[in-house]
Amino acid sequence: MGFLKFIGHDVQKQGEQQSADNPPVPSPKVYVAKPTAPEPLPKKKKRQRGGIGDFFNIDIYNVFNYKPKAVGGDASKYALSLEKTELSSFNHVDIILHSGGSYDLHFTGNTETISKDMTDFVDYCAGALGPDFMQKKTFSENDARDMPLGAFSRIWYGRMRIENVHYTLSLTLYNIQPAK
Questions:
Q1: What is the pTM of this model?
Q2: Element (H or E) spanning 9, and its range?
Q3: Which residues are bridge partners to 70 per DSSP?
Q4: 151-174 tens-digit pLDDT
Q5: Which of 84, 115, 161, 171 has the smallest number of CB atoms closer than 10 Å to its CB?
Q6: C-alpha 127, offset from chain centre
Q7: DSSP annotation of 63
């Protein structure tokens, strides 16, 4: 008969004569999928740093939205295991609630190295808060050398403390005022 079976449609062979026995059959539209590369993942946008809170995955001004657990029956101490590592260094935070409603956040993580996120944070704090109490400014080669020795620290009294003592890196943010 001169017809081919193609995707469930009868298609007339090319060059065949049309006749009463062989009426023209409309050809189905055939779409050929061109191989394409997978779409690239979107590049992570560099965050504009409007404040210290912008460095964290969690909302440090609404930390109780994450339902931390009371520690030891004391209504002023809470603990929270973090779903995402903060500043590529911290997987746990303790919260100390003050009577006036403000609180301290004490982040901890076991590490002998300091991440790029953490050095960026130190540099931001030095720019925003000025030198620490030892007049240290941005993260330096000396800081990188001190880190694996457990001798790294930065302290801005009343604001924050970052230190690596006994190979436990910690960051404490003091007197966080909750969002209203």
A1: 0.70
A2: strand 9-12
A3: 78
A4: 889 999 999 999 988 778 899 999
A5: 84
A6: 23
A7: G
